[in-house]
Fold this protein.
Amino acid sequence: MKNDLVSVDFRGLLGRFEMNAQFKVPARGITALFGPSGCGKTAVLRCIAGLNRLKTGFCAVGADVWQDEQYFRPVHQRPIGYVFQEASLFAHLSVRRNLMYGYPATASKPAIQFGEVVDLLGMGKLLDRSPRNLSGGERQRVAIGRALLTQPKLLLMDEPLSALDHMTKNEILPYLERLHEALTLPVLYVSHDMAEIERLADQLVLMNGGRVVASGPLGQLQADPSLPLVLSRDAAVSLDAVVVSQDAADGLVSVAVEGGRFLVPSGPVQQGERKRLRVLAGDVSLARQRPSQSTIVNVLAARILSAQKTADHQLIVLLGLGEDGKGARLLSRVTQRSWDQLDLKPGLDIYAQIKAVALTRSEASSI
Amino acid sequence: MNLNLSSDIWQPVRLTVELATITTVILLIVGTPLAWWLARSRSWWKEGIAAVVAIPLVLPPTVLGFYLLVALGPSGPGGMFAALWGARTLAFTFSGLVIGSVLFSMPFVVQPIRNAFESMGDRPMEVAATLRASPWRAFWTVAVPLASPGFLTGAILGFAHTVGEFGVVLMIGGSIPGKTKVLSVAIYDYVETSQWAEASILALGMIVFSFCVILAMMIVEKKVARRTL
């Protein structure tokens, strides 16, 4: 299972929409499908589920082929869980019976237990209520639980948070993170919200106009200068980090990434714990010498790998951490003027001053 | 006024209830798959079929009755069918009345059920499929319960409309007591023979019945409004 791939190849017309999407991603962790609205993210998900059928379609998880030229497995025989944008609970059934609808009735113990899911998603008090009397966030939690209880091999989530307001979103996100940590289930997650993706996803599939622009590990794609992500206003990178030590006195934690160390504010952590850092391009400034007196605690040696002009007289600079620039990638946004004044150019070794670093979440340990 | 009612005043009532019940049951059995197909199919000729089903809404009942009389009579297909058990014709029989009522009340049952299936949208069936429900299981556990107000409306309308039909019955059933003499025909006969008391009792009963039907319909509709969020 460890090296299994989710392989997808869909070509053809869906109504008037032309789809031509191929990607292969590891069948573990959370893979986000990202792109502007109308780019076909949801259509890809529906094709994988078998809800839409294209003439030329291939879909396989590991060695299990769900459809190819000759074969099409109907929706109800695919081992998927599907969470729709709106919770779509059955209004005529109680929460408990909604959850039980796809729960296997066989005598043998299923891998994902009813009680476990109820606890994981905090639904204990909701069980005997009608979906009509639930809040938006509660409904979506029930929908997620209902999908999980079908014992899926692949969980498909179509913008499960987009119909919710900001508060409710923040109420659900921790549940999704818990899910990610507790289950080894691969997830395909459609979203147009990069913040959500940075928090949850391990892999990214970038889509535009029915095509896949790129796919790969999240941090790698975020720092790829050939992709439009680096030019967005809130361009950022996500770095995988390991806790080295904790200084209890000032609440800072030292974490190591490839090619450098960061001090970040954090609650209690364990040494060796895996964390994820998010560094915004706008929070990284460059200096030719190591600044001697500064309030900025994170100053790391790095090498300029490339630079790219943005529309507003600024540059997005791609950095490689470490003396040789072979470490983790970082993005920095600088003005054209500073670039010229400091005489910066690719290949130059500089110091990156990082104003703010955020721990977005703990890395899943079980995957 | 002479209140010595003829003893067989209840016979047409019983017959009518029997006819309406059988008709409604048949209509639910036949109408459900038809309504499902009309709600779901994307074929271009489904509206043609829908129009054929709806024709009785605008057709004079005597026209339908006339063609049924021909079809069910000795030289029509109904007569040949009846010959299977040695009868000569289906016209002027209770079976003939059932066939006529089913055709005539069909739109009143099919339309509300079709509407209920359509207003449900594709989503519940898609959800059921992703929860491993076969189409058959999804139909019975999701579509039918969600469309239940449509079924109730259809059943009430189908029953009530069968009770009230006159033209078709007169054409193909005549007025054979205990066999084809239903309420509406009975009232007509009583008036013809100046039995005003009997006629007004039945007529009054029909008014009360109609009131109850309309009231029931309104309650169902109110319930539906509350169910949809």
Chain B has a mean pLDDT of 88. Chain B has one domain: 7-227.
